[in-house]
Amino acid sequence: MSMSVKQPHPNIRFVMLGGFLGAGKTTALLRLAQRYVDTGLRVGIVTNDQGEELVDTATFRTAGYATEEIPKGCFCRRLDELLAAAGRLQDGHRPDVLLAEPVGSGTNLVNTVIRPLKEVYADRFTVAPYVALLDPERALEALSGKGRAGFSAKVLYLYKMQQNEADVVAINKVDTLTPERLAEVKSLVEKNFPKAKVMAVSAKTGEGFDEFAAVLDSDAAAGVSAIEAGDLDAATVAEANEQLGWFNATWQITAPGGFDANVLCVDLAGAIQDALKDIAAEPAHVKMILRSGDDMAIANLLSSDRPPELSRRCNSAMINATLVVNCRVEAKSAVLREVVEESVRGISRTCGINSGRTVAQQATLVDE
Prior knowledge:
Number of domains: 2
Largest sheet: 8 strands, parallel
């Protein structure tokens, strides 16, 4: 499959895909990275989250991509660290294209990342148009004013401001939509975010991806829809981030007789979903990876009323594996920790596995 990039850019091509938690940024970046590699270009990736031990980092590295990780806060507060990570990749891997995945609750990324790279670091980077991916079901909940919105008004405000600053809003997961449903989502997006170019794409199947990639590699101006001074209610954004608690943890999983990682991931995500329903806590994104060598299973939970998704299947039974769980939920982090740890203990008993935690982190978010 061809794409427009045939020769390396004179500078590193900087491509940042934003969007709310669960929009499908990792899947899109994996497909995009492979397209660049297929044309002979070298790719580096920078991931970003509140905690360490990231599922996304493990996913990219297992896929063979040189990946740097910036934890403990959004790119919007850590431009120097993003530049340092880019420098390490350039020294060690010399990428032609740098793909960046910001934390899924990040806002004001155009003013804090895109524009500085264009205006101050133009000798190092050629900056692509800024694209925000969008999960269609979440968009319908958040923008239609009908049905259960799931999140508080402050979290929904943060969600809307993310799309407001995008040059392009890409409706992802169109493979899950009927034509009528897609038309409904597209109408809502165009009405709410009139400055953005609106596209439809499936990072999973590749539908619409030729046009999507062409926009990212075009010479169109980047950062033209930046949030203007006074248009962002910083206090509301900060409060929304405080409401989105997080918990990251890693376990070592063992079972002498072997276990099915695909089943375990889905069952664990389901157990977490049930426990969150019991306390009326809405998940933004719960993601987990079970990895043994290069084989891995990945599951995602995006909502209290959508079943968990197995986005990647492992190939064979596992005996020893590493389980990494990353959670963002509208709940206090201490409560979230209790939910996840008890869910892991319960699945361990049910599946007859041994689980020993090696790393755990939690915090109430204040650094956005």
